[in-house]
Amino acid sequence: MKPVDTRMALLALAVGGFAIGTTEFAAMSLLPQFARGLGIDEPTAGHVISAYALGVVVGAPTIAVLAAKIERRVLLIGLMTFLGIANGLSALAPTYHLMLLARFLSGLPHGAYFGVGSLVAASMVPREKRSRAVSRMMLGLTIATIAGVPLANGIGQWFGWRWGFGIVAIIAAATVAMLVRFAPVLQPAKDASPLGELAALRNGQVWLTLAIGAVGFGGIFCVYTYLASTLTEVTGVSSAFTPVAFALFGVGMTIGTLVCAKAADVALMPAAGITLLFGAGALALYAPATPHLWAMLPVVLLIGCGGGLSTILQTRLMDVAEEAQTLAAALNHSAFNTANAIGPWLGGLAIAGGYGLPSTGWVGTALALGGFAIWALSWKLDSRKAPSLGS
């Protein structure tokens, strides 16, 4: 067996993450264009975004359970091939209903890819470097928010919205080639089975970890969803400036992913708690900062840094899932898509209740503190079994 080039293997995994991050976030920026192209209004086009999220929530556990016995390199190649085909169908969809179906299909591989990819990344390094290896893969997702989304949006503006999805299919094809060349062969455990993966659902710590992400990360999505409107209506900048703020958010996520991963390799659970409190503090600064551009930009950067929580929880699930690694790792992304539903919904309620766009910061703060409360419960239960700061 040829030796594994760890650096290139992690790069291949990251390119796949870049493809997924681009298709997830670029669809939001291309919404007005494909709404016009398909002859529908923008609220109806929003259902296309929801269809992708539903695909993530459905696909992550389903694929993880059904693919329990499949060699992980083969599974990653299959998932990325499916993603490429589904995005090709999105680019070619002639009607709204076919577009809905194509976006649902595009979401199916999302959680399973990151879940299985995390396990493969962790397998290539010593245990004390697992979080950093996972973060290298997750960088593809964070960099997509900085470069991939503007790339797809620009291509969609210049050559038509369909090419915004078509470029993702091309990136997915490049990922497949890289995975074939560089990804290591990693067999699942000999006793792996669909029923064995479902055993993760009987583990209370798995559910608590997922709840930390579903609640604690909701604050970031609450602010992110209404950021453009807040900048134009409260801060008073032109819509042409909003990409700068979103790019800063992506830079923050990239910084947070790297820093949190290093901290998690030293003391995993304390790193999670500190990240949640840091996020709550950054979100608490948001409402007071909204009238001032000079304050908004650094606050948006700090809020983005809280996105490093994802890598920490991904590693935590590896520790608590026991033999059901694949399902637990994939469910992490179902949890974050749940956060993507909870945060904007609660923020919308606050805005509709007359509290204004800046109130999303206070809602986000409450969600981050809610995630911290769940973390405290999880750590307390852990301490009763085996007190250890790093567990």
From TrEMBL:
The keyword Isomerase does not apply. The chain crosses the membrane at residues 47-67, 74-96, 108-125, 137-159, 165-186, 206-228, 240-259, 266-287, 293-313, 334-355, 361-379. Keywords: Cell membrane, Membrane, Transmembrane, Transmembrane helix. It comes from the Bacteria. Its main location: membrane. It holds the Pfam family MFS_1. It is a multi-pass membrane protein. Residues 9-382 form the Major facilitator superfamily (MFS) profile domain. InterPro entries: MFS, MFS_dom, MFS_Efflux_Transporters, MFS_trans_sf. It is found in: Cell membrane. PANTHER family: CHLORAMPHENICOL EFFLUX PUMP RV0191 (PTHR43124:SF3), PURINE EFFLUX PUMP PBUE (PTHR43124). This is MFS transporter. It comes from Sphingomonas albertensis. The lineage of its organism: Bacteria, Pseudomonadati, Pseudomonadota, Alphaproteobacteria, Sphingomonadales.
